[in-house]
Amino acid sequence: MWNSRLYSLRTKLILAFLTVALIPLLILAFSNIQDTRSKLISSANQSLLAAASQTAGSIDTFINTNLNAVRVEAILPGLSKYLELPEGERSRRTDEAIAGTTLLSLSRKDSVNILPTPCWICAGKTSSILSRPTLEDESQRDYFQQPLKTGYPYVSAIRLSDRVPGQVNLYFSSPVRDATGKILGILRVCYNATVIQQLVTRQSDVVGPQSFAVLLDENAIRLANGKDSALTFKSVVPLDPGLLKQLQADGRLPQGTTAELSTNLPALKQGLDNATTQPVLTTQLVETGNRATAIAIAPLKNQPWSVLFTQPQAVFLAPIQSQIQSVLLLSALIASGVTIVAVITARLLTKPLIQLTAEVSQAIASDESISLITQLEQSHPETVRTKTREIWDLQRSFIRMKNSLIENWQQLETKNAENLRMATELEVTQQLQSMLLPKPSELSQIEGLDIASFMEPATEVGGDYYDVLQHNGHVKIGIGDVTGHGLESGVLMLMVQTAVKTLLESDQADPKQFLSILNRVIYDNLRRMNCNKNVTLALLDYRQGTLRLSGQHEEMLLIRCNGEVERIDTIDLGFPIGLEAEIADFIAQFEVQLCSGDGIVLYTDGLTEAENKNNVLYGLERLCQTISQNWHRTANEICQVVVEDVEQHIGKHKVYDDITLLVLKQK
What is the DSSP string of 212-252? Predict the structure, then answer.
């Protein structure tokens, strides 16, 4: 058994070596990984935000350039002169040729993105298209109405083409004015909106692998997607059915159900709503397979659109995985080296201890003492040379400890016997106390009074005293508090109870003589016991509604039938019992007449000085308030309410003193 414990010490030493070596390394590695992670995230967020802003700037530049181009073309004199002519005369004038040449020149500026015959001018409420009178009337479209209302160039939302399936258009328009500034008509240019998709796609991978941009409109609908063009014209979250129908009617969304035209990314939608204060967030995207993705949001200046630039976290945090692998490899190498060193060191340290254990076991089994050390040194000189002085000192200490334990065990057995005897005495005294307390059946037989009582000692034997005695129509009520607790206090309480009972049975009616004789008996007994305890004691005589109080104790509470509380100080009505041989000169009497519903409450200081966990006392004021509020109840109910309130105040805090309560109420 001893060897197994010592061999387990080797394991503990090895574990200690490993702990000392690896814990700091792991803490340092963890701190370094967290710092690297924080820096990588911060760097990626800055790069994504810069890319989002750059992409938004490119789209803004494209829109501004084309708006300026349309605005400049709209102020060319050829268009204004053409629109100033009456509608019937326009086709017969050379102005039509000039206007047509202007529009043709405008369309050839970007033959790739400007759709064929995209440029037209209109005036009045109906469109007038040069050389194409059969085209539909577009005068009610927003790109016609808005420039008329504001007088400024206008760029429309991206729309699906009415005539070419799968084609999306973007319209630029600007007012055409005469020399006085009057609006004669609107110049409109139609772009193939795939140019926006190209601007977005061109930004892919600029931040790093798998990074891309997404363009969203004001309704969080994808207008362009650098990762998956199939998600174009799908909203981030499901749209309201009414809004969906409106957008489909305006050509801004294809036909389909809400489920077909949306994804479910509420976290992204919330991030878009908070983009002003928090332009960078981490959430999931359909485009990245719902992996954790860093997203930077940048708004456009010319349109209520936003550019998202994203990259999966796993991509820019990849260096951390390599760092973790390096740390694990280094930890394994260090652990191997430390284990080898620890095993060798543990063996060197535990070998002499194993030998020591065997020798100590021999010493304990043979019941020898320090003299065995000398024998071992003489019989094992080689062993002595190999052991350190500290180990020999330890061996000597083991033997001394064994002898000391034997001696202490013998003393402990003696003390246990003494404690058992004292515990038996305390138990007997406690039983005597309980047996001598007034029974509820006795209290109920006292005419004219409703009486209830409660007592709880702080230790096995308490030092509180109370009693209610009746003899020849004379009711004697007593309450007292012996200093301290334990056996002596309990015995003193029993002596007081016996003396009070004896004097009452001997028809001693004078309160002054009663207390004087009681004091001399207790005083003499305390001197004989060589005990320095004393008792604060108050005695009350009750007969036919009249109550007489004498003796020194806590304040007596006199409660009138309406709950009003009067505090009667007893400091001048007596003197502590057992402190002096003669106390007759200190004894006085207080008399009060009780009417129906009046009563008194007696208590010991253990109740008013009960503490809670914050060392706050229960207090006499709280006791008076509780009694006053519940005086309409019976004496037993009042007693229960007060006890429950005190217990609630104390809680789980330790009770340091006996608690006694006596409630008497005139019927």
Answer: EEEEE-TTSBEEEESS-GGGTT-BSSPPPHHHHHHHHHTTS
Task: Give, as one character, the DSSP assignment of residue 532.
Answer: -
CA distance 495 to 482: 11
Task: Tell me which residue has tokens 């202007």.
Answer: 102
| Collapsed DSSP state (helix, strand, coil) of residue 603 | strand
- Residue 473 CB neighbour total at 10 angstroms: 8
Give the tokens for residue 251.
């050509």
Beta bridge partners of 536: 481
Give pLDDT, residue 553.
93
d(CA 50, CA 44): 10
> pLDDT grade, residue 18 (50/70/90)?
confident
User: Which DSSP string do the residues of 33-74 spell out, in sequence order?
Assistant: HHHHHHHHHHHHHHHHHHHHHHHHHHHHHHHHHHHHHHHHHH
What angle (nearest 5°) sits at the alpha carbon of residue 101, between those of residues 96 and 106? 130
Let me know how many helices (H) and strands (E) the chain has, helices first.
18, 21
pLDDT tens-digit readout, 291-344: 888 999 999 998 899 999 998 988 888 777 776 777 777 777 777 777 787 777
Strands 154-155 and 280-284: unpaired
Instruction: Tell me the two tokens of residue 227.
Output: 């990762």
Greater confidence (401 vs 291) lies with 291
CA distance 540 to 654: 32
Question: Residues 134-150: what's their mean pLDDT?
Answer: 77
What letter represents residue 405's amino acid?
Answer: L
Average of per-residue pLDDT across 245-266: 90
Query: Each residue of 601-635: b (16+ CB within 10 Å) or e?
Result: bbbbbbbbebbeeeeeebebeebbebbbebbeeeb
Closest CA to 105 of 128, 73, 71, 66: 73
- With a pLDDT cut of 70, the percent of the chain lying above it is 76
Give the contacts of 404 (CB within 8 A, at least 6 positions apart).
none
Give, for 466, the enclosing helix (H) or strand (E).
Answer: strand 464-471
Looking at residue 450, its amino acid is: D
For residue 362, what are its two tokens?
């021999």
- CB-neighbour burial class of residue 531 (10 A; exposed 0-12, middle 13-18, buried 19+): middle
Q: What pLDDT score was predicted for residue 6? A: 44
Asked if 255 contacts 248 with a C-beta cutoff of 8 angstroms, the reply is: yes
- Between residues 410 and 236, which one has the greater pLDDT? 236
DSSP character at residue 614: T
CA distance 213 to 51: 8
Residue 403 and residue 336: Cα distance in Å, rounded? 45
At 393 the pLDDT is: 56
Inform me whether the pLDDT recorded for 495 exceeds 80: yes
Q: Which residue has the tokens 């005068």?
A: 139
- How many CA atoms lie less than 13 Å away from 511 in the CB half-sphere? 26
Cβ proximity of 369 and 403 under 8 Å: yes
SS3 state of residue 26: helix
Q: Does the predicted model carry a pTM greater than 0.90?
A: no
The H or E element containing residue 428 is helix 389-436
Q: Is the confidence at residue 419, as pLDDT, over 80?
A: no
Q: Which helix (H) or strand (E) segment is 284 a member of? A: strand 280-284
**Per-residue model confidence (pLDDT) at position 113:** 59
CA separation, residue 74 to residues 108, 141, 142, 170, 535 (Å): 16, 18, 18, 18, 115
Report pLDDT for 295.
92
Name the 3-class secondary structure at 262.
strand
pLDDT confidence of residue 440: 83
